Amino acid sequence: MEQYVIKGGNPLVGDVEIGGAKNAALPILAASTMTDETVYIENLPDVRDTNVLLDAMQAIGVMVKRTERHKVALNSGNITSLVVDTEGIKKIRASYYLLGAMLGKYKHAQVALPGGCDIGCRAIDQHIKGFRALGAEVVIEHGLIKASAQRLVGSHIYMDVSSVGATINVMMAAAMAEGVTIIENSAKEPHVVDLANFLNSMGANIKGAGTDVIRIKGVPRLHGSEYTIIPDQIEAGTFMFAAAVTKGDVTVKNVIPKHLESITAKLLEIGCEVEEADDCVRVVASKPLAHTQVKTLPYPGFPTDMQPQITVALALSKGTSIVTESIFENRFKYVDELTRMGANIKVEGNTAIIDGVEKYTGASISAPDLRAGAALVIAALAAEGISTVDDIKYIERGYEDFHLKLKNLGAQIELAQTEKEFQKFKLRVG
Ligand code: EPU
């Protein structure tokens, strides 16, 4: 079984290059099926989730040509099936983006319903409500969500919750509906804006993405495009907190500092120095970390996808901190693992009460999900002694070359496949 083996204690120092945003790439890849012409995508992250989606797209007849590691050419002119039901696709939630995209273009699609979830119940009622408002019939049968319509007609839709997925899905379907759709209480995350920009580059008419109200004037057809995906806000934030937790000095490159404001604000509050330039952010942690309070919120609030990473930092800070998770109810599963490394955290409902400790000590831990997995790796990098992190398949879903980028910053981390490799690492690091 693959695991990371880590010897903690080295401050991370140097530069790290951030890749394209996974959560922008997924809807952009799906939306490329909305034209018969070729779409060229750059800055595509080479991570498991995007690769699983590309495989599923290939299985329904999309021509996928990876011209370079981070560039892909896609042509959906000869799609052979509107049913997406591969084994892999059930494992990624973003599979349902093919539903909005293909419903928009072909007025019919069937996609396997995403399976079990690691961070809490993830309803899809707002997606379904949006599709129905546009005139589609939506049923769930035999593990598939089936959506079909004679015509899609623009509508006024109020989202009961700010949902990234539902905003994206409805925006895609509405882009090729007749007339105007208005989505109220829409999600404002940078990846929602990136998808709107991509659709507009294909000839869609979408205004207001990044605000609470998105206005979409449907167009009959979309054309090919060349598009570069925005940098990954969460990958960047993860490395910024890795610098803080290991008392390092890291320059995170190829980022949009505006997208990182809530993360930067919290780093400043806990005593780090943060310097921003046009497309990079430097984080220096030279003082002991201070405690604070944080509540996860939709953008521009502090992202739920950074909640485990900030908790790992606060558990090493002076005093008592409070972290409130307001997006997903089950996102504190990693706390038990962190406790095994010496953290002092009590979880009550959606709140973690954290009493800072002086240090973590190395332990054998497992990644319970993508972001928590990355956060536990950061904890291990700061811990005294050796740790192993299992179930790294979760981390690989959303971080490209995670351990290599960390290693490049001076971390003592290896990918070990066998006990022998683990023993070799132990001998080497002493
Ligand atoms: N919700 C509903 N009904 C719906 C949809 C959502 O009640 O129909 C609720 C959810 O249960 C949740 C809240 O609305 O409480 C927000 O969920 P949202 O739909 O915004 O999340 P998502 O689209 O399923 C995306 C990211 C997540 C990220 C969240 C929040 C992708 C592929 N996933 O999920 O990313 O945590 O937005 O920002 O974009 C990750 O990358 O690790 C990850 C989990």
Model description:
By secondary structure, this protein is of the alpha/beta class. The protein has two domains: 3-19 and 231-429, Alpha-beta prism (UDP-n-acetylglucosamine1-carboxyvinyl-transferase, Chain); 22-228, UDP-n-acetylglucosamine1-carboxyvinyl-transferase, Chain (Alpha-beta prism), CATH 3.65.10. Helix content is 32%, strand content 25%. It is built from 14 helices and 24 strands. It has helices at 22-31, 48-59, 97-106, 125-133, 164-175, 190-201, 233-245, 261-269, 307-314, 335-340, 370-382, 393-396, 402-408, 419-429; strands at 3-7, 13-17, 38-42, 63-68, 71-75, 83-84, 108-112, 137-141, 144-148, 156-158, 180-184, 205-207, 213-217, 225-228, 249-253, 273-276, 280-284, 293-295, 320-324, 344-348, 351-355, 364-366, 386-390, 412-416. The strands form six sheets. It has a four-stranded mixed beta sheet with strand order 22-23-1-24, with helices on both faces. A four-stranded mixed beta sheet has the order 2-15-17-16. A four-stranded mixed beta sheet has the order 4-5-3-14, with helices on one face. Helix 1 (22-31) runs parallel beside helix 2, helix 1 packs parallel to helix 3 (97-106) and helix 4 (125-133) runs parallel beside helix 5 (164-175). The longest helix is centred in the middle third of the chain and has 13 residues, at 233-245. It is globular. The two termini are 23 Å apart. The mean pLDDT is 95. Uridine-diphosphate-2(N-acetylglucosaminyl) butyric acid binds at residues 23, 26, 93-94, 121-127, 161, 163-166, 187, 303-305, 327-328, 370-371, 398.
